[in-house]
Design brief:
- By secondary structure, the chain is α/β, with parallel strands linked by helices.
- It has four domains: 6-84 and 254-347, Rossmann fold; 88-252, Glutamyl-tRNA Synthetase, Domain 3 (Glutamyl-tRNA Synthetase, domain 3); 358-408; 416-508, Arc Repressor Mutant, subunit A (Orthogonal Bundle).
- The relative contact order is 0.08.
- The mean pLDDT is 97.
- The longest helix has 25 residues, at 484-508.
- The strands form six sheets. The chain has a four-stranded antiparallel sheet with strand order 3-4-7-8.
- The chain is elongated, with a radius of gyration of 33 Å.
- A hairpin with a 6-residue loop joins strand 12 and strand 13.
- It contains 19 helices and 14 strands.
- The structure holds glutamic acid.
- Glutamic acid binds next to helix 6 and strand 9.
């Protein structure tokens, strides 16, 4: 029987979610939806030292903003609740003890001071200390201490940890859905801590494996940085006797800096002025603020579209994908092995594409508060009409004001370089004639004004560029902007004529 697809996004709330983390969540979500499966959000918060207040809420809000819907999680509940590991504390000790019992793990009583001394010693000799098969028999572990002594140490409250007993010199063959077969010799690996008496908590490795098993996860899709942990995870499944039901694994390629060299970091964002976080983040400790895509004016659809293509290739030239299209097309075998280079220009390009196709009224609504900030009392009707004629020139809503202020505020001054270039020769007289032509247009639509003015220019063999630029100067005071007949249509006949009259008066009497 085909196994039901169940995937999880399992972030640790140690700070704001990096866009690489959002991509991991997205690929899990797409995979789940594509395969009729479940998408689970599990919060891995067993590392109390790295816990950051607000990070969990940030993760949840980010997923919501992106339109990534969780099926089972802290807010949704589900058959395997709770979904926050700190609330599952009692579960893990039993499993750690099971491994000690079966000889796959052992107690270690070394104090932090003893371990530090061992590290210092190894460094002095030019090496690094590894807690592994070469040393475990010589240190304070249950592998050679007597059963009584182990019991006594535990009872008197000595600190202990449970470590995985890594097999010696064994080849582990692993399969990764993106990378294929990976083989590693266990003698290169150390004995990872699985459980700590100091806080009665499991480490990531134990909690992660136990929960993936209990939550019936079918596929683990996560960042490449977890690939080195894969042999341990394979061996843990084997030690528990769960190999037959262990999930399949897919390790996603890194997100690289815009230069293509190295992993994309928060510092790159600060340096080059682009966000590496989905939402703005204010550090609860330092008060420092980091930029977010949402606050920087990106549409969530554009952000998601951009992220989806950083590592996944649809196999066609298509670049614009709605969430539904991503779901319909996504597959892990089109995810690449090599790092995906992040491009801030491409991110802006995606936003511009979504801007150009956005509903005019929705844009009008987003524009209204900006107009109010500039002291313009426009209604939604006007804001929508303006949005319609400028959106193809904009990347962000914040571009709207600069692209259109001259529609809302009639010019009182005129741009000097445009005056010098176009308010000369026959142009002023031609603009005066255009005014008369426009005065005769009944239904003042763009089509009608355009036909009238351009018809007159072409029929008389007049210089189109000269006249249109002078005409533009008269109506908006500057040399650039959206289609002039569009503008006339938006401000209406009366205002258009008034502006030309004023320009003729001011510019001809300089
Ligand atoms: N808690 C881990 C993280 O923060 C999860 C890794 C995994 O998906 O196994 O990324």
């Amino acid at each position: 029987m085909e196994r039901k697809v169940r995937v999880r996004f399992a972030p640790s709330p140690t700070g704001p979610l990096h866009i690489g983390g959002v991509r991991t969540a997205l690929y899990n979500y797409l995979f789940a939806r594509r395969n009729g499966g479940d998408f689970i959000l599990r919060i891995e918060d067993t590392d109390s030292q790295r816990f950051v207040p607000g990070a969990e809420e940030y993760i949840i809000e980010s997923l919501k903003w992106c339109g990534i819907q969780v099926d089972e999680g802290i807010e949704q509940g589900g058959p395997h609740a709770p979904y926050r590991q700190s609330e599952r504390k009692e579960i893990y000790l039993k499993y750690a003890l099971q491994l000690v019992e079966s000889g796959n793990a052992y107690y270690a009583f070394d104090t932090p001071e003893e371990l530090n001394a061992l590290r210092a010693e190894a460094e002095k000799n030019g090496g690094t200390f590894a807690y592994n098969y070469q040393v475990r028999e010589k240190l304070a572990t249950s592998l050679h201490l007597s059963a009584e002594e182990v019991k006594e140490r535990i009872e008197r409250g000595d600190h202990w940890v449970i470590r995985f007993k890594m097999p010696v010199n064994e080849e582990v063959h692993m399969n990764d859905l993106i990378r294929g077969q990976v083989t590693i010799n266990t003698s290169t690996l150390d004995d990872k801590v699985l459980y700590k008496s100091a806080d009665n908590l499991p480490t990531y490795h134990l909690a992660n494996i136990v929960d993936d098993h209990l939550m019936e996860i079918s596929h683990v899709i996560r960042g490449e940085e977890w690939l080195p942990s894969l042999p341990l995870h394979y061996l843990l499944y084997r030690a528990f006797g769960w190999s037959d039901s262990q999930p399949e694994f897919a390790h996603l390629p890194l997100l690289l800096k815009p230069t293509g060299q190295g992993k994309l970091s928060k510092r790159d964002g600060d340096k080059m002025g682009f966000p590496v976080f989905p939402l703005q983040w204010v550090s609860p400790t330092t008060g420092e603020t980091a930029h977010g895509y949402r606050e920087d004016g990106y549409f969530p659809e554009a952000f998601i579209n951009m992220l989806a293509l950083l590592g996944w290739n649809p196999g066609t030239e298509q670049e614009i994908f709605s969430m539904e299209e991503l779901i319909a097309n996504f597959s892990l075998d089109k995810v690449g092995k090599s790092g995906a280079r992040f491009s801030p220009d491409k991110a802006r390009w995606f936003n511009a594409q979504y801007m150009h196709h956005r509903d005019n009224e929705e844009l009008g609504r987003l524009f209204l508060p900006i107009l109010h900030e500039h002291g313009v009392k426009a209604c939604i009707f006007l804001a929508t009409k303006v949005a319609a004629i400028i959106k193809t020139r904009a990347t962000f809503i914040s571009d709207f004001w600069d692209l259109s202020y001259f529609i809302f505020i009639a010019p009182t001054e005129y741009e000097q370089k445009t005056i010098d270039k176009y308010w000369k020769g026959d142009n002023p007289a031609h603009v005066a004639h255009v005014r008369e032509l426009l005065a005769g247009v009944g239904d003042f639509t763009k089509e009608n004004t355009e036909k009238t003015v351009l018809g007159w220019i072409t029929e008389n063999g007049l210089p189109m560029g000269q006249i249109m630029n002078a005409f533009r100067l008269a109506v908006i005071g500057v040399g650039k902007g959206p289609d002039l007949f569009d503008i006339c249509g938006v401000i209406g006949k009366e205002e258009t004529l008034r502006r030309i009259d004023r320009a003729l008066e001011v510019l001809n009497n300089r």
